[in-house]
Known about the structure:
Blueprint lengths: L2 H7 L5 E3 L1 E2 L10 E5 L6 E6 L3 H18 L4 H17 L1 H12 L3 H21 L7 E2 L6 E9 L3 E4 L7 H12 L4 E4 L5 H15 L8 E4 L3 H10 L5 E5 L2 H13 L3 E5 L4 E5 L5 H13 L9 E7 L3 H12 L20 H16 L3 E4 L15 E5 L14 E7 L2 H9 L3 E2 L1 E5 L3 H8 L8 E4 L11 E2 L2 E2 L6 E2 L8 E9 L14
Helix pairs in contact: 1-4, 3-5, 3-7, 4-5, 4-7, 5-6, 10-11
Amino acid sequence: xxxxxxxxxxxxxxxxxxxxxxxxxxxxxxxxxxxxxxxxxxxxxxxxxxxxxxxxxxxxxxxxxxxxxxxxxxxxxxxxxxxxxxxxxxxxxxxxxxxxxxxxxxxxxxxxxxxxxxxxxxxxxxxxxxxxxxxxxxxxxxxxxxxxxxxxxxxxxxxxxxxxxxxxxxxxxxxxxxxxxxxxxxxxxxxxxxxxxxxxxxxxxxxxxxxxxxxxxxxxxxxxxxxxxxxxxxxxxxxxxxxxxxxxxxxxxxxxxxxxxxxxxxxxxxxxxxxxxxxxxxxxxxxxxxxxxxxxxxxxxxxxxxxxxxxxxxxxxxxxxxxxxxxxxxxxxxxxxxxxxxxxxxxxxxxxxxxxxxxxxxxxxxxxxxxxxxxxxxxxxxxxxxxxxxxxxxxxxxxxxxxxxxxxxxxxxxxxxxxxxxxxxxxxxxxxxxxxxxxxxxxxxxxxxxxxxxxxxxxxxxxxxxxxxxxxxxxxxxxxxxxxxxxxxxxxxxxxxxxxxxxxx
Length: 505
Ligand code: NAD
C-alpha cells in the first residue's frame, strides 16, 4: 500500500479538521503539519481546535453522556464490538499510518492496531462483567452491596509513541462503562487520531451515539489545559512524560478531579550469574531497540552480575551489530528513525553527559545522516552504578550497562530511581526469582521473570509506581477507574439497628 492509498482508505485529506463533536466540526486554531520522520516529508495538515472548538466538543460529550449511560452495558459493548470489527478491516492501513507518522517499524505499527482489537474484545466481555461485591451486613435483615455507575466524559491525553493503542486502553473500556470520551492526541501524531475517529464515526453514524468518541487536536498548553481544568470532565487519563504529569496532576488536584497518570519509565533488567545469557541478550535487545527505544517500557538499564558482565557485554555488542536500520515500512528492518530530530538531539545530549560521568561507549553513538535527520545508531554505554544520568529517562535507543556484585545490590540499583514502571530478572534460580518478585524485590508496576521489560499483554493492569504516576489501564480491574462506586445498604426489616451496636433513642 503506498502513502496515497493509506490516506485515502483512512479518509485523511490534505487539510483536515482537528475536532470531532459527534461529527467533524470547523476548527479555528493554527495549522499543524504531520511529518513523516523517516523521510522528513509533510504527510498532511490539520487545523487545530481553538478554545471555542473545544467548548463544542466538551458540550457534545456531556450531552451524549446523558443518553449513552441509559443504554445497558452489554448494548454499549455491542457498539464496541463493531468498532473492533472495523479496526480489523482497517488494520493494514492504520498500521501503516502509525508507521508513517511516528516511525516504528511496520510489524509494530500493525501490532499496535492488533492491541486495539484485543482491547475491543476485552471490553466487549467486560460489558457483561461490571461486577460489584455483596458484603455480609453486621445488622440483621440488612443487605449491603456496591454497584458501579458511569462517571461522565473522560479526557484522554495520549503520547506519540503509542498513538492509537493508548486511546483504546482508555476509550473502549470507558465506553462500555457508560462514559463518553474527549481525546487530545500528541501533536506528533494527529493523523492517526483522525483516522481512528473516522473509523469510530463510520460505526456510530446514524445511531444517535456519534458523540461517544470525540476528538480535539491542539497543544498540551491550550486544548490539553482546557480539558484538565474542565469540571465537566471528572476523569483525565494522561499518558506521557513525568514533566507533563507534574503539570496535569497538579491542575487536576486543584479541582480535585480524578487522574490516571501513565508517565515515564526508567526500566531495568537484572541479569544474574545463573541466567540463560542467550535468552537475556535477545530479550534485552528487543526491549532496548524495539520502537527505537521509544516505548515507555523500553529497557534503559541492564544490571549485570559481575561474574557474567563481560560475556553479556560482548554478546550485546555483537547482537546490536545485527540490527538492521532503515525505512520502517521496508521488510527486514528492525529499527526506524526516532520521532523527530529533537529526539536525536536529546539522545546525543544524554550521551555527552554519560561520557562526562565516566561512561564508556561500547557500541553506537553516531547519527546516521545518510538515512535521514532522525536516524541514530542504537547505543550501549558502560556506566558505574552511581552516575546521576541513570536517574533520567532518555526516550531513545540508549542503554546503560551496569555491573553489580549481588542480587541485593542489583535490586537496590534498579529501585534507586524516581520512576517505577517495568522491570525484569533473568535467572534460573527459583530463590532469586521469588525474591525479586517479593516485597523485598522490584518496586515497579510490572515485574517479569525471563521476559524483557516491554511488550505487555492487554489482559493485565498496565502502569507504574512512584513518579510513573500510579495509574492502571487496560486489563484486570482497571475499568473501575472509569466508573463511580456506590455502596448501598438496604434495611428490609422493621427495626433500626445501628452499626457498631450504637444505641440512640
Ligand atoms: P509528552 O509528555 O511530551 O506528551 C504527552 C501528551 O501530553 C501529549 O498529548 C501532549 O500534548 C500532552 N501535554 C503536554 N503538556 C500538557 C499539559 N500541560 N496539559 C495537558 N496535556 C499536556 O510525552 P511524549 O513525548 O508524547 O511521550 C513520551 C513519554 O510518554 C515518555 O516519557 C514515556 O515513558 C511516556 N509514556 C508512558 C506510558 C505509560 O503507560 N506509563 C505509555 C506511553 C508513553
